[in-house]
Amino acid sequence: MSPVDAFRLSDAAARKYQDHSVPAMFAPLADATVKRLNLPTDGHVLDVACGTGALTRAIIEHLPGQGCVVGTDLNQSMIDIAQSMTAQTEHNVEWVASDVTELPFDAQSFDLACVQQGLQFFPDKPAALAEIFRVLKSGGRLSLTCWRAISPFNDALAEALAIHVSDDAAQKARAPFSFRDGDLITSLLQDAGFSITTHDGIVLQRRFEDLRAQVLALPVEQDMRAKGEAAIDQVLEDIAARLAPYAQGGVFIVPQEAHFFIATRP
Fold first, then answer.
1. A GO molecular function for this record (predicted)?
2. What is the pTM of this model?
3. N or C: which end of the chain has fewer CB within 10 A?
4. How many other C-beta atoms are found inside a 10 Å radius of the C-beta of residue 200?
């Protein structure tokens, strides 16, 4: 399997992502990101690795004037859901299934490009950033978020999986947080030709109201089910014990930190 193919998702996986991961993490992160962006009036905006469109829809909602917003993702399954969830708007909206290293757009087409939690999954990060640089106009900006620290939830999940399921499952639980070195991200952006104008953080407060449903919505579900219901119960009990310091009124409220970069193409 090629590195790119490893990130292709089935229709069912894309739907589960939208139903659970988007409201829990990606929609709140999108809202926090858009509040920090000075969206260009009548601008042309590209959302790379858009998933089911959480950030894209937030941009559409807040973009002033009559601009153009394009969401692109490797997975057609994600694009289909994103398109089906997007309301009518005065903006020109397009959805495109594409590899980030081969974007089907002319050079210097966009005023702003965004990557929300996608960089860590790009197999060839320099090539991806070079391609985004290519399609940005001179003076155009790249908004980038990438997790800054392992979430206490994912750390608890990984520890429980290592004990009750497998080391491979534990590694999957930590995978989204595997690329969190701010200095390394800075170097990659600068090597691609960008000038960094902002680097700070966003902290989400992630709510876990139904721990079982939210855990079984993750990619480790198959690993857990292969071990049986008893193992699943043990994992959930272990996670709950580890997250006890974050319990508030029967709900776990867990911080999750992200890097926030703004980088400009000179």
1. demethylmenaquinone methyltransferase activity
2. 0.91
3. N
4. 12
Residue pLDDT, tens place only, 85-124: 999 999 999 999 999 999 999 999 999 999 999 999 999 9
Residues 88 and 64 sit within 8 Å (Cβ to Cβ):
no
DSSP annotation of 19 reads I
What is the rounded CA–CA span in Å between residue 235 and residue 165?
Answer: 8
The three-class DSSP label of residue 11 is helix
**Domains delineated in the chain:** 5-149+177-207+254-264 (3.40.50.150)
Secondary structure (H, E, C), 148-176: CCCCHHHHHHHHHHHHHCCHHHHHHHHHH
Give the DSSP letter string of 80-93.
Answer: HHHHHTPPP-SSEE
- Report the distance separating Cα 42 and Cα 264, nearest Å: 19
Give the end-to-end CA distance of the chain in Å, rounded to a whole number: 37
Tokens standing for 49? 């690795």
> Taking Cα atoms as reference points, which of 162, 175, 257 lies closest to residue 218?
175
Asked if the model's pLDDT at residue 1 lies above 70, the reply is no
- Cα separation of 130 and 116, whole Å? 17
The distance from CA 129 to its chain's CA centroid, rounded to whole angstroms, is 16
Q: What is the pLDDT of residues 13-32, one digit of tens each?
A: 788 888 878 888 999 999 99
Distance CA 184, CA 194 (A): 14
Query: How many Cα atoms occupy the beta-carbon half-sphere of 80 within 13 Å?
Result: 10
CB neighbour burial string for 9-21, b if at least 16 within 10 angstroms, e if fewer: beeebbbbbbebb
